Amino acid sequence: MVPYRSFKTSDGDILFGGGTDRLFGILCEGLGKPEWINDERFAINSARVQYRDILEPAIEAITMSKSTQEWLEIFDGTGLPYAKVNDLMDTLNHDHGTSFFFPFSTRFAKRWDDG
Fold this sequence. Notes:
Layout: E1 4-8, E2 13-17, H1 21-31, H2 45-50, H3 52-63, H4 68-75, E3 82-84, H5 88-93, H6 95-114
Antiparallel strand pairs: 1-2, 2-3
């Protein structure tokens, strides 16, 4: 399935799941490349797989023009699977990360100090 991977942005990375023809159309619209929808090199997944070496760098050239947050806002509510790719600090500082990791780290620290 192409594209189904992360791409560099101006300040990080974003993952797009545009592997089906319908989802690829949504991706094209959001990227400002609606002409790719009917381009015979990209119109169906098997063609996108064949021309991956052309398509993926072209997508990344576009995604690098905006921040990750800008892309998140563009694709919000479109139905396209997408996500910010978090680094370790993003993960640890995210609400889910702090609620998951913090109790374990304090529990471990208490046991370590007691022992």
